[in-house]
Amino acid sequence: MARTPTSAPGSERAAGFTLVELLIVLVLLALASGLAGLALRDGRETRLEREAVRLSALLEAGRAASRASGVAVRFELATPGSSPTRAGDAPEAYRFVGLPPDTLPPGHWLEADTQAEIPSARALVLGPEPLIAPQRVVLKLDGQQRVVATDGLAAFAPLPLAP
Prior knowledge:
This protein is α+β, with helices and mostly antiparallel strands. It is built from 2 helices and 7 strands. A 4-stranded antiparallel β-sheet has the order 3-5-6-7, covered by helices on one side. A hairpin with a 2-residue loop joins strand 5 and strand 6. The chain is elongated.
């Protein structure tokens, strides 16, 4: 008569780990590495992403205001060494030409050391036409860069990062 192994004290048991024990260890390792990845997220990348999302919202607001008013609106980057718009303010980094004053927030970046460039143009033309030319702005911060662009029909949005 053959004996069936049991897990009772004093009974013989095969050495090694069960499949359930190995799976539990793998799940715990996956959770620990995921939490470590979130904790070590690059703050520079987050700050630049926030600038890009804000800029795309401002450009779309300018584009909508241009279409609603029928007035041509341009987004221009300020030239280095420009003067503040009001006493006590920091120099503006960009401006919307064609919109009434106080329509959009002051032209300052969230991060003071953010730099921007409009490749192959002096300004972005935001309207009033519903279709505009494809345009882009390159934002740079701490050695990283992010592009905010439109194809002329879709809204301005940050482009996905290249792998």
